[in-house]
Specification:
- Helix content is about 40%, strand content about 20%.
- It is an alpha/beta fold.
- The N and C termini lie far apart (about 125 Å).
Amino acid sequence: MSTAAQVLPHPAAPPAEDAKPSPAELERRASEARAHAAKLEADGAPAADIKKAKARARQHVEEAKAAKSAARADRERARNRPRSVGSRPAIDVSSEPDAVQAVIEVLESGRIPDVYLYGAGPAQVGRDATGPTFVPLDPNGLTLTFINQADVIKTRVTNDGDEIVTSVLLPPRIASVALAKTRWDLPVLKGISSVPLLLPDGTFQLRPGFHEKTGYFYEPRHVLRDVPADPTAEDLNEARALIVEKLLADFPWQTAADKASYVASLFFAPLRVLVDDPMPVFMLSATNPGSGKSLLVTILEALYGAGRSTWAADNSEMGKVITSVLTGTANPIVIFDNLPNGHTVRFPVLSELATARTWNARILGQSRMASVPNGRLWIVNGNGLSTGDDMARRVFWSVLDPAVRPDLRDADKFVLGDLEQWLPNHAADVLHAVLVLLAGWAARGMQRSAHSIPSFGRWPSVLGGILDFLGVPGWLESREEHMQDGDEDAIEWGAFLARWYKEFESGEVTSKTVLEAAQSLPDPSGYGNTPGPLSEVLPREGGKFLPSVKQLGHWLKAREGRHFGEYRLRRRYDKHAKVNLWWVEHNPAARPQD
């Protein structure tokens, strides 16, 4: 008997170990088991069968509950950590608390590039009309950043247990709560530089972008030629000639010290890493309008970029201006241009700024405080400027004094012709010369001078060393003279104390006695160098009104122990009379304190 070959059916493949029923499938089975048990009971089936059916139904119900619980736990774990879609991090905003934590973790993990800590919170480097700048991340900015750099999703679970993922915008409340964090683990951004920065090892930071070791973001302002690491004597002579003998040759400097001070200002921006000490305010003043002050400012602006700010009406407003500049702009140079003729610069908040490494102030429009680096060069520009209160010792002066009317000078006879026309096409050459001179100074040991000014660290000696290396004389030589002649407060109080000493010698008197003497003495008198009547030299409120006894007492306390020329104000408290007793010391050899 012939037989045909039998084709045996393939055995059913066993279910894969991980092919577990879904929570929805288990819920369906539990429902069917409950219905089957109910039918048996209704039909009067044997009790044993009904018992078995109910037990099977309870088992299916427990399995369905366990599956749902496991699925929920899986979703929570997934939401609790950033997920990736391709190379982009993903934030699931289905649960707000988990989403807030996930946003913070993504920012601090570095997976969103170019986010730094500046001031009170996260910031990015952006660009405005003046160049690169700081852009603090607000909720809208964070939402836009996540659109470009991450995937924000929302997960919804259907009745069948399926997950539906939808792309959404980062909800404003989640963004706001995340940004309310006060302690961030982010790279600290100290500033943005438009030029290569000289490093302590004598090299320049040349790679654009953020450098974690320095804390500066470098975005070049000019396309520069290579700067030699060890410039030759010919390189150095050529660079020096361009700056000292050509660029600055035709400005009517009052003294060699005024020219040296301005040359020093040209080196500030590239030195911000090497010297991170507070920087005095630069005062550019002139005896006549049109002398070239604004052109000196334009040179710095062309090389490095500069922001121009409005001079405030009072101390409080000036504090807001400073905070706005430091938190919202990145230019290394800040200019208060064309102050009123004869203006006295005396804001206490500006005095505080000049000696501060960091600036602490409330962020405008917010309740939070910001602490931002003060790595800027602050320039005040005007005619016949003077200083008051404590500003005199916090200033580097550069004064122009033309021998003829400025408008009568022929720009065609200047070494470089009309600088305003020449500079835009040669700013990169001037900057290259500055860097060559710095490289030469660094390659030859970074020599420093012996100059020192309290509160300003290495700036006086480093800049003095560079000027010595260049052979530029006069650094800080006229500072003492400027402090006396340009300090309106010192002049006023020097005259007052001189007359006080003439009236009372070294006798102890109260502020009330001094005020009564000023009110009772006759007006006329005083010839030659003899101090005038006390009423004429007593400082006045607003320049017009005699102070009250209490106000005069406050003024005296604020100046206790300070030298005003040859005179010094001293105080002793009388415990029995419970009053302050004042007297004036006279020392012809005394000099104003630095």
